[in-house]
Amino acid sequence: MNNEEKIVKIYTLEKEHEYLIPLLQETFDKENIDFRIKSKYDTAYDGIFVTQKGVGDIYVFEKDKDKAESILEDLLKETE
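The structure assignment produced for this chain is given below.
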């Protein structure tokens, strides 16, 4: 990710959506969308707060926000 572009959070992955990570990576890569997932897993507490805080937050460049949110929404609908 380029340090000069603004990065925004688009979603917090819940434990039940953890399986989406490989699908997101494949789809975002095909669409040339750079993204990062900031893990919320805390080793000090052995992950006991993952159910409350989620697995991680998904971040993209602001310029890709709308497209990334649309892709994510479609993936969530398809997998329900």
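Interim note for the steering committee: The first strand starts at residue 7 and ends at 13. Residues 7 and 34 are 10 Å apart (CA to CA).
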